[in-house]
Give the backbone structure.
Amino acid sequence: MGKTFAEKIFAKKANREEVFPGEMLIITPDVLMTLDADAEIVYRFKQLGLKRVWDPDRIVCAMDHYSPASTVRTATLLKTLREFAKEQGIKRFYDIGEGLAHEIMVEDGHVLPGQFVVGTDSHTPSYGCVGAFSCGIGTSDALPIWATGKHWFKVPESVKITLLGKMPHGVYAKDIILEVIRHFTTKGCTYKCVEYVGETLKEIKMAGRVVLANLSVEMGVKATYVQYDEVTRSHVARANKEYEPVIPDEDASYSKTYQIDVQGMEPMVACPHAVDNVKPVGEVEGTEIHQAFIGTCASGRLEDLEVAARIVKGKKIAGGVRLLIAPASRSILREAIELGYVQSLLAAGATFLPPGCGPCMGLHQGLLGNGERCISTGNRNFMGRMGSHNAEIYLGSVATVAASALGGAVTDPRKCI
Amino acid sequence: MGSLIKGKVFKVGDDINTDYIIPGKYVDIYEPEELASHAFEGLGEEYPKMLVGHSVIVAGENFGLGSAREQAPNALKGAGVKAIIAKTFARIFYRNTLNVGIAAIECPEAVQAIGQEDEVEIDLERGTVVVRDEKFYFASLPAEVRDLLEAGGMVPFLKKALDVPA
C-alpha cells in the first residue's frame, strides 16, 4: 500500500520505516514561524524562566499584523519583539513593512519542499504550496519547541482533491477553493492533510497555489500539499538551497477523495457570515458595497496586482467606494511600481496600505462601520471580523473584488476582462 | 484541577469561531483575568456578563474554528471555565484549550442531552459526564494530558518537566 504525503513526511522526520494515521510522534520541526500578533510567546517564554531559544537559526519572525503599530500597546509589543530577536540572535527577523509572514516564508525560501514547519498562526498550512508539511499551533504549543526543539504531533488522515479541466476565462484559484469549501463545509477536513493534484495545476502558478493551501484552513485542515512539479521547482530554485521533496504515492489510502472539473466553473463568492456560504457570483451580483479590499495572506501578490491593475486601468472606482490594497511584501510593491500596476491602481482611485495584514483581523487600516459591506480577497468573513458587528464581508477573487470596486456592487469580473 | 469537575453549563451552538470567543482587537492582552471581561463578546456585548458563574461550556460542532489565538481559551479560563464539552473541536483550539489548562471533551451525546444552566459532573479519569442522573461516556483523557491539566497548563507543566529553577 502506498503512502500519503503526511505519512511519508512523518516517517522521514521520525526516522521510521512507516507510520500510520492517529500515531503520536515526537518531531523536531525544520522551521518555526512566528509573528507579531503572537508576541505572547516571548511573554510566556520569560514566564517559563528560560534564557535561550533552542536554535535561533530555525526561527523566522515577521511583523505583519501590527504593521505599523496603531496603539501604544502594540508599539510596545513590537519593541519587545525587536529586542528579544536581537538578544536571542534571531537573524531572520522581518520588521514592519517587509511583508506578510506567510509571504516572506515562501518568497525568501525559508520553507522548502519536504520540510516540516510549524507556525503560531492558523494560516501556516499555506506552505503546502511548495510541498512542505506545515501546521498552525498556539503560542503555548510553540514553547516546548522554542525550549527543546521537540514536540508531539499526530499523523493526520489525508484527503485527495483532484483538479481537472482547463481554467475558464475569469475564473481563478480563489473561485476553485471556494467551490471546494462549499463542497466540504468549514468542518469537512478537520485535522486532515489535504492534497491537491491534477492537470489544472499546470495553469496555477505559485500565487494561486498559495490561495488553495491558505483557504484550505477554512475547512479545518492540519496541513496541505500542492503537487510538486515544474512550478514548484522553478519557484524554489530562486532560494538556491538544497532540499529533498516528499511526493505521495499514487496508491496511497485517503479518508476522502474529491474530483472537481473546473471547466464550466463560474466565479464564486463566499457570503456573510461563513466561508462555506458560497454562491456563484451571479446570485449576489448587484449587492451594494462600500469597501473593496485586496490583500491578506490569501492575496496581494504580484499576479493579483497585475489582474487588478488590468481591470481598473483607465477607469475610476465607483463613487462612495474605497478600494484598499495591501501588497503582500515590500518586494512585490516595488515590482508592482516598476511594472506600472501601482500607477494604474492609484489613477483609478485605489488607496495603498503598507505591506501587512491590513484590516482583515479588525485591528486597523480600514475597518467597516455600521451597516457597511465589504468585498475582500481575504479568507474570513465572520461577523465583526473587520470592524462593526453590523457589517458584512463577501470574499471573492482579486478579479471579482476589482470589478466590484468599479461597479460599486458585487460584479461578475467576466464583464471587465 | 482534580479529575472531577462540577459546574453550571453555558451552552452555545455550532461553528463558534475564535473571533466570536475573543475579537481580534484584544489579542494584545495576555492575562486570562483581563481577557475574561471580553469572553464571547464577538457574539454580542451582553455575552461576557451572561457567562459569569458558568464553569462548563457546552458547544455544538467545530467549536473554536478560525484564528489560532490562544486568547480564546484564556478568556474562558479567566471567566472561570474549567471544561468544554463539544460535539467536535477545531484542531488548534483543541490543543490550545488543554495547553491553558481547560479540559476539552468530545461527547456529542452529552451535548444533545445537556441544556442551558444544567449542573453537570465530569470525571476526566473515568471519562464520564453526568447530567440530571443521566450518564454519558467519552474517551478518557490520557494520563499525560491529565498531568498537563493538573499542572494548570503548558507553562507550569514545562517548568516542572524541564526542571527550570523557580
Chain A has 13 helices and 18 strands.
